[in-house]
Write a structure and sequence with these properties.
This protein has 15 helices and no strands. The protein is mostly helical and 283 residues long. The longest helix has 25 residues. Its main location: membrane.
Length: 283
């Protein structure tokens, strides 16, 4: 949109274009300014969560927080004012996020004991999705969901197998080591087995006897052997989902969906899949 078209609008329409769109210089400047304010407010939230800085610079952090809250409140009200359908904006996803970015501060002001609600301020980070227009990439997350659904049964079987191994190893270590060496109960021994088989290894409980160390070695080797299994299952399903998407070219005659990306004719009825003008940009 050029500046002449923007100047021909009334004040409310101009605000709407600047705030909700980025196809004007003013809109891009507004989004840049808003992005800086969002990140600055998140920095304040992080420093406020550190006891040393909160005690030493409490007044400054509170002042900055109220400054940012005021900015976000004004912005929220302006968005409602200039939107052609205010109710639609208020009840939209981003409308709720915009509201949640200012409400916690006022709740904490009215209810001093509810200061923990200020943690909700971190939800302002979600506003970055709109400013950076990241929502256009969220459709790619559908591939991940399809892959998860496709690999669900395999992963469930895998998790059940791992759970069985953990129960066996934990019980075995409880029998071998016993309470004297830190394995005070079967649940505690199962905890050790989970930590070991996932190769985390906190080291708070360690086997002492030679037989216990031998079992621990077996558990660690098992962990390294199975750690890549769910990744392989998920990756295979993800590749299948992406390939299926690339094959979805509908035949205008018989409605068959699955064709190779570069196929020119339907594999079922032989009809042409694309018009010549679609295949040749110069036509």
């Amino acid at each position: 949109m050029d500046n002449d078209a923007l100047q021909s609008m009334n004040w409310r329409e101009r605000l709407y274009v600047i705030i909700f769109f980025t196809n004007t210089p003013a809109g891009r400047r507004f989004d840049t300014w808003l992005l800086v304010v969002i990140f600055a407010s998140l920095v304040v939230v992080m420093f406020d969560s550190i006891a040393h800085y909160s005690e030493r610079y409490g007044l400054l952090l509170d002042g900055l927080e109220w400054l940012f809250t005021g900015i976000f409140l004004v912005e929220y009200l302006v968005r409602i004012y200039c939107h052609p359908e205010p109710r639609k904006y208020v009840f939209s996803f981003y409308g709720a996020i915009d509201l949640l970015s200012v409400v916690p501060a006022f709740i904490a002001l009215l209810l001093p004991d509810a200061e923990y609600l200020l943690v909700v301020r971190a939800i302002r980070m979600l506003r970055v999705f709109r400013v950076l227009k990241l929502t256009q990439y969220l459709s790619q997350a559908n591939f991940l969901l399809v892959a998860l659904r496709g690999s669900k049964q395999k992963i469930i079987v895998f998790l059940l197998s791992v759970t069985t191994m953990v129960l066996v190893y934990g019980t075995l270590m409880y029998v071998i080591e016993g309470p004297a060496n830190g394995f005070t109960s079967i649940p505690m021994s199962i905890y050790w087995a989970v930590v070991t088989i996932t190769t985390v290894g906190f080291g708070d409980i360690v086997p002492v006897t030679p037989l216990g160390k031998a079992v621990a070695t077996l558990v660690m080797i098992t962990g390294y052997s199975i750690i890549a299994v769910p990744t392989g299952i998920f990756t295979a399903e993800l590749a299948t989902a992406m390939r299926a998407d690339s094959l979805q070219h509908r035949c205008p005659t018989c409605e068959k969906l699955t064709h190779e990306p570069n196929a020119a004719f339907c594999s079922r009825c032989g009809s042409q899949l694309f018009r010549q003008a679609d295949r040749d940009p110069q036509a």
